[in-house]
Amino acid sequence: MEKTHGCIHEGEHHKGTQDKCVSLVPIFNHLEEGQMDEIMNTARSIIFQKGEMIYQAGEQSDALYLVNKGKIRIYRLSESGKEQLVRILRPGDFTGELALFNEGVHESYAEAMLETLVCVIKRTDLQKLLLKYPTISLKILSEFSNRLDQSEKQTTRFATEKVETRIAMFLAECIDAEKDSHEIVLPMSKKDLASYLGTTPETVSRKLADLEQDGLIKQKLHKKIEILDLDGLLLV
Amino acid sequence: MEKTHGCIHEGEHHKGTQDKCVSLVPIFNHLEEGQMDEIMNTARSIIFQKGEMIYQAGEQSDALYLVNKGKIRIYRLSESGKEQLVRILRPGDFTGELALFNEGVHESYAEAMLETLVCVIKRTDLQKLLLKYPTISLKILSEFSNRLDQSEKQTTRFATEKVETRIAMFLAECIDAEKDSHEIVLPMSKKDLASYLGTTPETVSRKLADLEQDGLIKQKLHKKIEILDLDGLLLV
DNA sequence: CGAAAGATTGAAGAATTTCAAACGGGGTGG
DNA sequence: CCACCCCGTTTGAAATTCTTCAATCTTTCG
User: GO molecular function: any one (chains A, B) (predicted)?
Assistant: First the structure.
């Protein structure tokens, strides 16, 4: 029986979209026109509806997924079955890589948060591309080392900081992303944020209230938060 | 003023040792004789005494370090200055890679735990090797994705499991390493273990006592622990 | 409009840290 | 070779942080 999957389009039929898809992704955007075409021809694009799974833990991995449009929730289950949100993918991000170079089995779950368009490159095609264009490997190595760094930093935060500090640091990083403005929009629900930060929705709610009480932030409608005192936030 | 550093030997003068050093490392051990020689000629070996730093956070990164003999403690400081032990390197492991492919600045600290021999490959030499032998990149990609997986799994554990469970899981993984025997030797002090697991030495001490009380383990001399009930341990 | 999911708040309880004190073992210098 | 000292370890008690459970409120979305 078929598992839930998205609607498939052959790459050749959507060169316009494909072009944008591949060139969006940092690991490919240094290549020349002809090389890009070659990659486009090995890729196909798939649309996933909200709630559909791109892959699940335990499944055989056989492709790299490049996000073209939409958002994807990557989460894990711990040995004892509790869920943790690992990251959210946006256009330009990619996933599936862990299993590609590993034993080939996914360790995490990837779920479309809304209608999402992804480009798919099959494992065998990717391996050929990597050997043919070694600079792609260097790009992926760079991306991996970034992610590894991020992941280790996150681990260190869990290991050494209390919840309120982790929340404050998260808010501060949102500021970096939306430069200039001191108003951020939470990129996820507070429930997901709690999962991402390794705590409960109740605690997130309370700690945000505390931060507001202390005059460091101001919560507004629609997940918007104004940062009143960034320096103070980082001292929490 | 010179910072603390190890004693330097030119690679050419130690072919015997070099050979062992490079071939020990999984990312190179698939290469042919001649290629191995080429790498050996670009590497040099350095000895660090106990307590010496191989590198520190904030320093410019310019080399890959392959551990030949000894042990290296990799740790991070959180934004608020608290230390966390990230991993311990043993012969065959390598480090320095994060900064190599990233912005070039170390995010962690590497300290020799005892007299330690490392092979060093300079950044520029490595880049050349990677472009010349694309299979090395694939090996490193594989190693990276393993580490990333490990790191994310660790993060998920911090996010979802309580201390006692994390300790139990750690012990269970030690069993995997020392197969057959049900007696493990803690690879580090309980103080370091606490740092690695994101807790305090007091809590480690207490939780181990609890596990012993419950008949799941038996603590012996010299960091040795006998696992009496592996299944029970994983249910904690 | 109404159901379902997310968010907030309070109160009780559990888990963990912190501080303090005492103990032990391994390594070093005499 | 022994004694001493330092550092890691253990244990206790108090304090803190966080979770859990339950009830209520709000928002979203069909």
Answer: DNA-binding transcription factor activity
- The per-residue pLDDT for A10 is 44
- Distance of C1' in D9 from CA in A228, Å: 45
Give dist(CA A34, CA A38) in Å, integer.
6
**Contact criterion met (CB < 8 Å) for B145 and A80:** no
Question: CATH assignment of B161-233?
Answer: 1.10.10.10
A187 strand C contact, CB < 7 Å: no
List all nucleotides in chain D with at least one atom under 7 A from a protein Cβ. Answer: 8-13, 17-22, 27-28
User: In this complex, do B82 and A154 lie within 8 Å of one another by their Cβ atoms?
Assistant: no
Whether the CB of A182 is less than 7 Å away from nucleic strand C comes out as no
Tens digits of per-residue pLDDT, B64-73? 999 988 999 9
Q: What is the nearest CA distance from B75 to chain A, expressed in angstroms?
A: 9
In the β-sheet with A116-122, what is the strand arrangement from edge to edge? A7-9, A43-48, A116-122, A63-69, A94-95
Measured distance CA(A90)–CA(A88) in Å, rounded? 7
Note the pLDDT tens digit of each residue in A70-105.
999 999 998 888 999 999 999 888 998 776 777 778
- CA-only gyration radius of chain A, Å: 20
Domains A7-150 and A161-233 share a fold: no
Residue to test with chain B: of A101, A171, A235, A236, most B Cβ within 10 A? A101
B108 with B52: CB under 8 angstroms?
no
Sort B193 into a burial class: Cβ within 10 Å, 0-12 / 13-18 / 19+: buried
* pLDDT at A154 > cutoff 90: yes
Cα-Cα end-to-end distance for chain B: 52
Residues 88-107/B with CB < 7 A to strand C? none
Overall average pLDDT of the B107-117 stretch: 91
Point out the nucleotide closest to A188 (alpha carbon to C1′).
C6
> Residue A94 and residue A24: Cα distance in Å, rounded?
10
Question: Is any atom of strand C within 7 angstroms of residue A157's beta carbon?
Answer: no
Could you state, in order of their start, the residue ranges of all structural domains in chain A?
A: 7-150, 161-233
The DSSP code sequence of B30-51 is TS-HHHHHHHHHHEEEEEE-TT
- The arithmetic mean of pLDDT across residues B47-52, rounded, is 88
